[in-house]
Design brief:
Blueprint: H1 16-29, E1 45-55, E2 58-66, E3 81-90, E4 101-104, E5 114-117, H2 122-133, E6 136-138, E7 141-145, E8 157-159, E9 167-171, E10 175-179, E11 182-183, H3 189-199, E12 210-214, E13 220-227, E14 233-234, H4 235-245, H5 250-270, H6 280-296, H7 304-316, E15 335-338, E16 341-344, H8 355-358, H9 365-379, H10 387-405, H11 413-434, H12 440-452
Antiparallel strand pairs: 1-2, 2-3, 3-5, 3-11, 4-5, 6-7, 7-12, 8-9, 9-10, 10-13, 12-13, 14-15, 15-16
Helix pairs in contact: 3-5, 4-9, 5-10, 6-7, 6-11, 7-11, 7-12, 9-10, 9-11, 11-12
């Protein structure tokens, strides 16, 4: 067992004290993390919003990272972003945790101690599961579980290395714990939606087994434990394999479209639906996002006039299907295939958007558009580009969706074009900030959507 540090009683009671130790380390470490949203802006302000010693040598923190300005006082979230961190503290660095080493604190109550990302520490990960297995409290943290499910003890943990906006621990190839990194007030859709769908009897979505949340500085969801599908393969990997082998993917795409429609129908039954799925306010919001993205990514600017036409057509086109709860960030990486069936995961939505917006009612066409864009992304991973592969998959997916939903997304051309355009604008902004080498992929769609009209 790796020996943890012994913290002095009372050393961590005031929120300003630990930051004297941690701020210099986190200011360098945070921008290097895949899930950190402010990579294009320097971290100018760091403040501690909440701290709990989860167990000896492991600190749970909610940290505000600002990029200029002062955090808002009181019980409202500050400007900037709030991040969840689990930090291990040890007397000395240990070789087993080289990957997780953040640095050695020089000042404050942790002076001289080694600080780690505790998710890489198997002992810390095991103790975190024990907290989830036994509902209760730890300071402002609340650990809760489905009373009808018993999670076994002693499951070996491993941290997934996949690129994502959160962190995930797999336990014994039986359960997966997603820890949300960027925290916003309110219940996270990735807990709310799978729970509601499980109550509907929807087998396409793994149900929550346990979860934890915080009451301070405001109520928020922090993590969700769900069944893990060890033999499943994500849709992105399957699509790339098909492309590499020259195999047809249309049958799987058709089945995926049907699965998407089934989830949408279950969502419509689990949550209240709204009126028309589209209106002038939606078009205005899309236009505002376009203009903001063009300000951040100058390469978008020449296409703005053409892209605006998609949103203008949206404001006057037929209403389309009613607004309802949707996935919100659907693509091939958010679906798994196991035992010849498709499963849908990660209902958090686009983490960069406000939580209230992600929990709001939206057109199901938005999810369809996200998946259609994903087929295009996959097709462009190989040279020469295979546009016909993407077209066949898109048609098959929409046809499969229509067989279960009762309406065909392809018949709502203006609606679908607007949502594809909005998604492509989001992709441009994302790639420019996080993966500049991928920027040509969404820019090719931008050119098509702006010049050819879809």
């Amino acid at each position: 067992m790796l020996k943890t540090a012994s913290l002095q009683p009372g050393a961590m009671t005031a929120l300003d004290r630990p930051m004297a130790s941690l701020a210099p380390l986190l200011r360098q470490w945070l921008p290097r993390q895949r899930w950190f949203a402010g990579k294009d802006r320097p971290v100018t302000d760091l403040s501690l919003l909440a701290l709990t010693e989860l167990f000896p040598g492991c600190l749970h923190l909610l940290v505000h990272a600002g990029h200029g300005g002062v955090p808002t006082p009181g019980n409202t979230p500050p400007s900037g972003d709030c991040y969840q961190l689990l930090l291990g503290v040890r007397d000395h660095p240990v070789p087993q945790l080289d990957r997780a080493f953040i640095g050695r604190a020089e000042d404050g109550p942790l002076a001289g101690l080694a600080v780690y990302d505790a998710l890489y520490d198997p002992r810390a990960a095991e103790l975190l599961l024990e907290r989830l297995r036994r509902p209760g409290t730890a300071g402002p943290l609340r650990f809760e579980a489905n009373p009808d499910v018993r999670v076994p003890e002693g499951l070996a943990p491993r941290l997934l290395d996949a690129e994502q906006s959160n962190s995930s621990l797999v336990y014994g190839d039986a359960y997966i714990l997603k820890l949300f990194r960027r925290i916003q007030p309110g219940i996270n859709p990735d807990l709310e939606v799978p729970g509601a769908l499980a109550a509907q009897g929807c087998a396409r979505v793994p149900a929550p087994m346990a979860w934890f949340r915080t009451a301070e500085p405001w109520p928020a969801t922090l993590g969700v434990l769900q069944p893990f599908l060890p033999d499943a393969t994500d849709g992105w990997t399957l699509a790339l394999r098909a492309l590499a082998a020259g195999d047809d993917f249309t049958l799987k795409a058709h089945e995926l479209g049907r699965a998407t429609a089934e989830v949408h129908l279950a969502l419509a039954g689990a949550f209240p639906s709204g009126g028309d799925g589209e209106n002038g306010r939606t078009a205005a919001a899309m236009t505002a996002r376009l203009e903001a993205a063009a300000h951040s990514v100058p390469a978008l600017a020449p296409y703005v006039p053409g892209l605006r036409t998609a949103f203008g057509a949206l404001a006057t086109c037929e209403a389309g299907p009613p607004a309802q709860r949707i996935h919100g960030d659907l693509h091939l990486g958010q679906v798994l295939r196991a035992d010849h069936s498709w499963f849908v995961i990660d209902f958090e939505g686009e983490p960069s958007r406000p939580l209230a917006e992600r929990r709001g009612l939206q057109s199901p066409v938005r999810d369809v558009a996200g998946m259609l864009r994903s087929f295009d992304y996959a097709a462009r991973q190989r040279r020469p580009w295979r546009p016909e592969w993407a077209r066949r998959c898109r048609d098959a997916y929409c046809a499969g969706y229509a067989t279960r939903a009762g309406w065909d997304p392809r018949r709502t051309h203006a609606l679908l074009r607007a949502h594809e355009t909005d998604r492509a604008v989001y992709e441009v902004l994302y790639e420019a900030r996080h993966r500049p080498d991928w920027l040509p992929v969404p820019m090719a769609a931008i050119e098509r959507l702006a010049i050819k009209g879809g």
